[in-house]
Amino acid sequence: MTKKKYFLTGFFSFLAILIPYICFGQSYERKTPVVNAVKKVSLAVVNISVEYSVKARPNPFGGLGGFDSFFDNFFKDFFEPGFEKNFKRSSVGSGVIIDGKRGYILTNAHVISKTSNITVTLKDNYEFKARVIGMDPDSDIAVLHIESKKILPSIKMGTSDNLMIGETVIAIGNPFGFSHTVTTGVISALKRSIKTNDRVFNNFIQTDASINPGNSGGPLLNINGELIGINTAIYAKAQGIGFAIPINTAKRIISDLILHGEVIPAWTGIIVQDIDAETAKYFGIPKNSGVLIKAVEKKSPAFEAGIKEGDIIKKIDGNSASSIIDYTSFIKEHSAGDIIKLEILRNKKIKTVSIKIKAFPKNFAQELSLSLFGIRIADRNEIKGVEIMKINPNSYLAKIGARQGDIIRQIDENTIDNKKNFYKAVVKYRTKDTVVVLIQRDRQFYYVTVRLSR
Question: Would you say 220 and 230 are in contact if contact means Cβ atoms under 8 Å apart?
Fold first, then answer.
């Protein structure tokens, strides 16, 4: 075809579009899938405002607390330590109604962690005082409850198992207090790990949809208006990227928070490590082709199922487990009573083993504290923390100078107020090699790194 014919063909095609528009006012469909999705769920998105108190020393120039500025630092030395005053602070976040009949709202734990003075505002400006059902800082998920005389609009749960990099997503929230702001983008990456000041979050969805302070706790939707994630703005350095907690990770946590007020960890009894180049060479397998079982806890579901130290987990329920993050993410989606199938490599042969997950037995925690830390503890009613009542002289704690009568105030990022907190922390960190412990002796405080015994 000649250049002239190409030109004429293109010209007449252009006229075919232009003439009907000029003559008949033809226009294009404006109600896109994004518009439909937002319309479907917007009534279920709520504004969450919290008010909390902070203690700070005033300065003559009006600065409050933290001494972030030059004048704050200068004037703090002019006041006695007890001169602090209480100041009211407020912050704004988002949430989404997941059960309109019972009044349950899903949000981020960090949105409401500083106070119980929480107000929920619906899109029609109706306000409710909210009660915290439960929150889990490790996953940054919280569930609130409001009392309503009528059934509230709620969102449809989707799945995050089959998300595709590049697919369109929609975020709704209250960034900087601008209610029900809608942003769109695509899924940029999956299984992201985010490190904050005090913990690491794994398996996050990364998106280029704008997620700013105030968006935290709001929904991330797919193009059909289904809830696939909970937006979180915990990563202060993020610019032009946002993160969300996959909804499948959230589902089990939501259920535990509603039923128990806390998360009941799923217990397999398996302690794993990544397969590095050296380990892969030793076993004669490719690097990152599974996770190595470095220990199996006695009396655990894995122990009873015949899982052994040195086994390599290749798949969980048909899904490849190429890292600790993969393994942890799969386990976190399960509750006590669930049965999972592990495909393991043992002596260069593939074997399938079924494990029935259990809740970690509470009576094991006391045994763990003795075996891992070498101590027995008791509550101290007059102060926060737990007192070391007995210490094994051969334990690591004893060797670095800890002794009977010392008070344990913190383990890693967990504050220890009583025996219950202490045993929870022991169970939580039992798979680690070391933990940082805050010990009080008289009026002195010491941070020590403790190697756990096994």
Answer: yes
